[in-house]
Amino acid sequence: MFRRLHARLIRNVKCKVQHSLVNQQCIVYEIKCKLCDANYMCYTCLRLHQRIDEHKHSAIAKHLRDEHNLRPHDLHEQLLKICRGKLECLISEMLLIRNKMPTLNT
After folding, report:
1. Who wins on pLDDT, 56 or 90?
2. Which of 75, 69, 85 is closest to 52 using CA atoms?
3. Could you count the other beta carbons within 10 Å of the beta carbon of residue 42?
């Protein structure tokens, strides 16, 4: 009984965290290829789920098509920083790209 209740609580917490993440604005995030070490960093002031939809025509989508013959329907994004505004996003993105050197940012 306790294990089932604990598992249900964990699932509910994960759903709430993911829901709040996709609605987050003014963030710097990273998209990683699940099949190799390729990655792409970007910022958005849109809601994350809106921006991820736009990545179906970006460098990560091109990588998935060209390198793995896949469509970009299941992107794996990771939140790197929550910012207070566009200027902080731009500066944070620049510094993270410089430090981590993602392979798909040109």
Report:
1. 90
2. 75
3. 25
The reported pLDDT for the residue numbered 49 is 77
29 touches 83 (CB < 8 A)? no
Assigned token pair, 44: 């958005």
39: which strand partners? 32
Distance CA 86, CA 43 (A): 9
pTM of the predicted protein model: 0.74
CA dist 54 and 40 (Å) reads: 14
- CA–CA dist 80, 41 (Å, integer): 9
Over residues 33-48, mean pLDDT: 89
Local structure of residue 12 (DSSP, 8 states): H
Tokens of 75: 């992107």
